[in-house]
Design brief:
With about 160 residues, this protein is mostly beta strands. Helices cover about 0% and strands about 40% of the residues. This is Replication protein A 70 kDa DNA-binding subunit B/D first OB fold domain-containing protein.
Length: about 160
C-alpha cells in the first residue's frame, strides 16, 4: 500500500511492503527464499545415542494451519540461536534450507521435509504473541493400535491417562 505524506513544501510517497508468509505445506527444497511465521512448540538437544555427542538443537514448528515441521540447527550454531529460541514463543524465520527427510529419526509422522537453520538464518521473536497459531499438535490413534507401534522408530508414541 502507498502512504502519502503532505508537509509544507514537501510531498513524499512511501511504499510499505507487506510480508507474505509461506505455510509449512508450501515448503519445497527447490526454493530458498521462504519467510515463516511459526510457533516453537518443542525444542530439545539432539545427541548421538551411543556416544552422547551433541548434534544440535532440534525443534518442532507449527503454523497457523496447524501443520508441523521438524527443524534442526548444527551444533556450532547453538550459541547463535539458544538464547533467542524460547519454547512456546511465536517467531518469524527466514533464510533456511529445506531438505527431504531421510533416515528413521522422525519426530513428526506426516511430512516429507525438514528445515535446516544456517549461520545466516534470521530468527526474530514476533511482536504479537497472541497470533492464532496453536502451540501443540497431536495425532491421536485408537488405544488398541498402540501395540502395533512397538519397536517402530518412525513413531514417537506417548500415552496420557
Amino acid at each position: 500500500s502507498n502512504i502519502i505524506c503532505f508537509l509544507p513544501q514537501f510531498t513524499a510517497s512511501i511504499t510499505v511492503t507487506q510480508v507474505r508468509y509461506a505455510l509449512l505445506r508450501q515448503l519445497t527444497p527447490s526454493r530458498d527464499r521462504w519467510h515463516l511465521k511459526v510457533h516453537l512448540s518443542r525444542k530439545w538437544t539432539a545427541r548421538n545415542f551411543t556416544s552422547k555427542e551433541v548434534w544440535g538443537p532440534d525443534m518442532l514448528l507449527i503454523d497457523e494451519n496447524e501443520d508441523q515441521i521438524h527443524a534442526v540447527a548444527p551444533r556450532d550454531l547453538i550459541p547463535l540461536f539458544n538464547n533467542i529460541l524460547t519454547e512456546g514463543d511465536i517467531f518469524h524465520v527466514k533464510k533456511f534450507n529445506v531438505f527431504k527427510i531421510n533416515g528413521t529419526y522422525r519426530p513428526i509422522i506426516d511430512g516429507e521435509y525438514k528445515i535446516y537453520f544456517k549461520n545466516d538464518t534470521i530468527v526474530k521473536r514476533s511482536d504479537d504473541q497472541t497470533l492464532p497459531i496453536p502451540l501443540y499438535k497431536f495425532s491421536f490413534i485408537e488405544f488398541n493400535k498402540i501395540p502395533n507401534r512397538y519397536n517402530q522408530p518412525k513413531y514417537l508414541t506417548g500415552i496420557h491417562y
